């Protein structure tokens, strides 16, 4: 047996073992409820006077089937997304479908609770399709190119998430059920969800298996057009089909996003090369993953509180990604930046941005509401305000700089505009460390919180560095493994939030990027760390200029790519961790500040980083001011406001500039 055959058998064997374990688990649970001789009767014609038979017919069996149907639909949706967008980083949540569905249900729960209770699936489906419509309109000027769709979907996801977080912070304890639903729930009381989801899934399978046009999408645009493919129409119809599959699944069982990413990945790792093979394998693997995860959490429910299915799939799928990563041949990403136009007057733009930042700092320190209305403070009054306003302002600006530098480094290092500090798991690792401390410790101090966040960040960083070393710091390997780490921590966070403990919700403001409790000492540390980062990062500009040229070109110019990528990854992770420890996982700035800088025409590494740092500081400074005064005397976290400010601005830039 060849080495290649052995590599393919590994993932296949794991999936077969998962299926076998799931079936054994299901049989064991059935035998606990009913003797074997009554199984068929419970399935076909249950005795209404026998509680166990009714339970099997109306709850156990529908849950078993909904796991298979939903998992298969998500796997198929994921492979379509990845084929159309030509990137293994795409999944059903790429276009904001899950975030839109979650936001719609949150709003309906608060505003029209009767509608949310009676038409839950319809509300979620409407929200998912509305989010897709926004992404579609934003990407339309770019003729729905893959990179524009992914970036628009990412920003819409951030915006929907920010509004949802604001709702959660305002109605924390009342949103426990929504937290559980957001992590996916397969609990069934009848056959209604199966009957609604199954037709969509069957239609999607029949339509998607017309694979010839989809196969041609793997070519570049010029090659596909030369073969007579109506590229725009095929891409649009394929995306609508994938969104319909994902939205219908979300409306039936909640947000279960990782299956759509993991199933196509494992299918390729198992040796499925042609598109028809990958599609069939993705459907089967998606169904098995979700079924195995659901059976595992039902068995675990004997010993602990049952956790959501979406969190279980994240905990199951992330290790599989890590195990099979080296078995997958990875193609270098072909993502292009937003614009290739250079800025003819970079110093002027930098000066204008710096002036705007200074003006925002002055306004933030001096302007505010009072008993007599809005007014600017006098110099003597500002002195009394500094102790309250300056520390949080300094921390916000420093965090914006650090996140912007981290995002710029990792985007240039990987040549991937979707890369961000959250991709390497640093932000979610820190958030999980804090949440775990709050849950387990009877009491805690700011120092212990910082230590817990640092521990979570270090675990993520070490894991990514070890995987990066094994793969010679291949950019796409780093991104894929980072997504696995991030998903695992996000799943664990969802489990903790779903527990509904009062002290858990006290940390939500920090997770949203709050500067409320920043002390002068913390602010001083933040500014010092940001200053050190600004001094150090210019030393790496040559590496950041060469790495986007590709592996071969970088080596030809004398660059040791493994060493340079390891150092840059460490610098990026350290910057993101320092900012996360101070104000929470505000990764939006790390995604958007580099894009805003590039969209303004800064292409070379040094001006790109400087402009991104200024943009990041400007966004967070403005966000801190608005969050402080917009709902006075109540306040909004800087993370939420930064998303609501930077997101629409970035979308406006996308519509103004074509690739």
From TrEMBL:
Database matches in Pfam families: FecCD (PF01032)
Stretches that traverse the bilayer: 60-81, 93-116, 122-140, 147-173, 279-301, 307-325, 346-365, 385-410, 422-441, 447-466, 478-501, 609-630, 636-654
InterPro entries named among the record's database cross-references: ABC_BtuC-like (IPR037294), ABC_transptr_permease_BtuC (IPR000522)
Compartments where found: Cell membrane
Membrane topology (UniProt): Multi-pass membrane protein
Assigned keywords, A-Z: Cell membrane, Membrane, Transmembrane, Transmembrane helix, Transport
Domain of life: Bacteria
Gene3D superfamilies: ABC transporter involved in vitamin B12 uptake, BtuC
Family of the protein in this entry: Belongs to the binding-protein-dependent transport system permease family. FecCD subfamily.
Protein name: Iron complex transport system permease protein
């Amino acid at each position: 047996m060849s080495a290649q055959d052995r590599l393919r058998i590994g993932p296949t064997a794991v999936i077969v073992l998962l299926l076998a374990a799931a079936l054994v688990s299901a049989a064991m649970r059935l035998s606990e409820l009913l003797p074997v001789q009554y199984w068929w009767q419970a399935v076909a014609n249950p005795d209404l006077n026998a509680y166990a038979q009714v339970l099997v017919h109306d709850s156990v069996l529908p849950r078993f089937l909904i796991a298979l149907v939903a998992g298969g639909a998500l796997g198929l949706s994921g492979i379509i997304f990845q084929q159309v967008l030509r990137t293994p980083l795409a999944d059903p949540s790429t276009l904001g479908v899950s975030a839109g569905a979650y936001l719609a249900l949150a709003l309906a729960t608060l505003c029209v609770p009767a509608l949310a209770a009676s038409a839950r699936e319809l509300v979620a489906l409407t929200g998912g399709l509305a989010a897709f419509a926004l992404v579609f309109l934003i990407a339309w000027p770019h003729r729905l190119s893959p990179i524009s769709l992914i970036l628009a979907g990412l920003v819409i996801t951030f915006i929907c998430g920010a509004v949802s977080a604001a709702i959660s912070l305002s109605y924390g304890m009342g949103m426990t059920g929504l937290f559980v639903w957001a992590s996916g729930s397969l609990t069934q009381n009848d056959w209604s969800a199966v009957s609604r989801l199954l037709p969509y899934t069957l239609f999607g399978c029949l339509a998607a298996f017309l694979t010839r046009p989809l196969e041609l999408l793997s070519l570049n645009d010029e090659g596909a057009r030369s073969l007579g493919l109506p590229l725009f129409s095929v891409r649009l119809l394929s995306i609508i089909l994938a969104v319909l599959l994902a939205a219908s699944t979300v409306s039936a069982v909640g947000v279960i996003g990782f299956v759509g990413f993991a199933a196509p990945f494992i299918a390729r790792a198992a040796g499925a090369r042609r598109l028809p093979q990958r599609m069939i394998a993705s459907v089967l693997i998606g169904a098995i993953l979700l079924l195995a995860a659901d059976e595992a959490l039902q068995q675990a429910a004997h010993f602990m509180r049952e956790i959501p299915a979406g969190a279980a799939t994240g905990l199951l799928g992330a290790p599989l990604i890590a195990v099979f990563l080296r078995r997958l041949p990875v193609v270098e990403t072909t993502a292009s930046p937003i614009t290739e136009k250079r800025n003819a007057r970079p110093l002027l733009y930098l000066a204008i941005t710096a002036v705007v930042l200074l003006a925002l700092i002055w306004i933030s320190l001096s302007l505010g509401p009072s008993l007599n209305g809005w007014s600017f403070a006098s110099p003597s009054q500002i002195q009394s305000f500094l102790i309250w306003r300056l520390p949080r302002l300094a921390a916000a600006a420093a965090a914006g700089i650090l996140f912007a530098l981290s995002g710029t480094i990792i985007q240039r290092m990987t040549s991937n505009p979707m890369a961000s500090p959250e991709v390497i798991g640093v932000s979610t690792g820190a958030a999980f460390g804090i949440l775990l401390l709050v849950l387990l410790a009877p009491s805690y101090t700011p120092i212990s919180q910082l230590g817990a966040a640092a521990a979570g960040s270090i675990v993520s960083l070490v894991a990514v560095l070890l995987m990066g070393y094994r793969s010679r710091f291949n950019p796409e390997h780093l991104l894929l493994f980072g997504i696995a780490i991030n998903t695992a921590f996000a799943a664990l966070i969802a489990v903790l939030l779903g527990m509904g403990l009062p002290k858990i919700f006290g940390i939500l403001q920090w997770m949203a990027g709050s500067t409320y409790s920043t002390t002068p000492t913390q602010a001083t540390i933040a500014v010092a760390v940001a200053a050190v980062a600004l001094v150090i990062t210019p030393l790496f500009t040559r590496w950041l200029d060469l790495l986007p040229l590709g592996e071969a070109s970088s080596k030809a110019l004398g660059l040791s790519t493994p060493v340079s990528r390891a150092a840059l990854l460490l610098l990026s992770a350290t910057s993101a961790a320092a900012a996360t420890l101070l104000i929470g996982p505000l990764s939006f700035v790390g995604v958007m500040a580099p894009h805003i800088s590039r969209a303004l025409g800064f292409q070379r590494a040094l001006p790109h980083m400087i402009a991104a740092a200024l943009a990041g500081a400007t966004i967070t400074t403005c966000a801190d001011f608005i969050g402080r005064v917009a709902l006075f005397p109540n306040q909004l976290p800087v993370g939420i406001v930064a998303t609501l400010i930077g997101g629409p601005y970035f979308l406006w830039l996308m519509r103004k500039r074509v690739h």
